[in-house]
């Protein structure tokens, strides 16, 4: 479970995150939806200790990310698939994660299989990967420690339609087995098809949130909020 309480972050005069509170529950996919510049990435970066909030707190299963002794075993994170080391091969990147987390070596090949990267692809430098292949590798790195929580920023970016379906099934299965999934996107359709709960953000503020069913039944709340956010 992820708990965000009254989070605020200002950059100069820009209020990137403005008094944001919500939870992402275990066993559910929570969609974090908002247009470019809404404050999604800043909120996710605060959750994983990369950005310090001005006020408020973000905890994962009751603890802040920096207090987790072996974070990869508790939370899988994919923020920017293109930020992976371009000079290393996919297998090397996964092997580093496996060693860092103290996992069995077999996890590397298991993960490559899970994300359908072939042995030949796994031996190529990440700099030569397509964006879709980087996303698959990023998802493999996020999943390798078998964490209970997944935080993913626009993971469908660069995936082809078959890849998008694959990812939806993967995240659905993960949540159905009790995992917490927080999925950020600026695409209403992407979130609508997979999320159980939706948190909508615009200009740093929560615009609407609830279960997908509730929001859809509330006389088109999602549609109205989406109009408001120009999604
Ligand atoms: N390091 C930074 N320095 C200054 N301003 C920043 C910084 N990071 C984010 N911002 C600003 O904060 C606001 C929120 O940005 P953020 O990246 O969190 O939005 P987002 O919803 O993730 O957008 P996108 O969908 O484009 O990734 C924007 O106005 C952005 O310009």
UniProtKB/TrEMBL annotation:
**Gene3D superfamilies xref list:** P-loop containing nucleotide triphosphate hydrolases
Q: Which residues form the ABC transporter domain?
A: 2-228
Gene Ontology MF, one:
ATP binding
Keyword annotations from UniProtKB, A to Z: ATP-binding, Nucleotide-binding, Transport
SUPFAM superfamilies tied to this protein? P-loop containing nucleoside triphosphate hydrolases (SSF52540)
Q: Does the keyword Transport apply?
A: yes
- Name assigned to this protein: ABC-2 type transport system ATP-binding protein
Please report the organism this UniProt entry assigns to the protein.
Actinopolymorpha pittospori
């Amino acid at each position: 479970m992820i708990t965000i309480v009254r989070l605020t972050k200002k950059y100069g005069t820009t209020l990137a995150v403005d008094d944001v509170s919500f939870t992402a529950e275990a066993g559910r996919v929570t969609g974090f939806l908002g247009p470019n510049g809404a404050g999604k990435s800043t909120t996710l970066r605060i959750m994983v200790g990369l950005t310090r909030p001005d006020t408020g707190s973000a905890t994962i299963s009751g603890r802040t990310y920096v207090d987790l002794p072996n974070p990869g075993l508790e939370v899988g994170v994919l923020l920017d698939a293109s930020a992976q080391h371009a000079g290393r091969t996919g297998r090397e990147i996964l092997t580093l994660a496996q060693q860092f987390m103290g996992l069995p070596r077999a996890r590397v090949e298991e993960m490559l299989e899970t994300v359908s990267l072939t042995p030949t692809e796994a031996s190529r430098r990440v700099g030569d990967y397509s964006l879709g292949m980087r996303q698959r590798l990023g998802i493999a790195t996020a999943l390798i420690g078998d964490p209970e929580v997944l935080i993913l920023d626009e993971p469908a970016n660069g995936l082809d339609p078959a890849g998008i379906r694959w990812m939806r099934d993967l995240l659905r299965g993960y949540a159905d087995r009790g995992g917490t999934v927080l999925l950020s996107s600026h695409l209403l359709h992407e979130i609508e098809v997979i999320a159980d709960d939706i948190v909508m953000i615009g200009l740093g503020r929560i615009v609407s949130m609830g279960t997908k069913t509730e929001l859809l039944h509330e006389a088109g709340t999602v549609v109205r909020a989406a109009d408001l956010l120009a999604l």
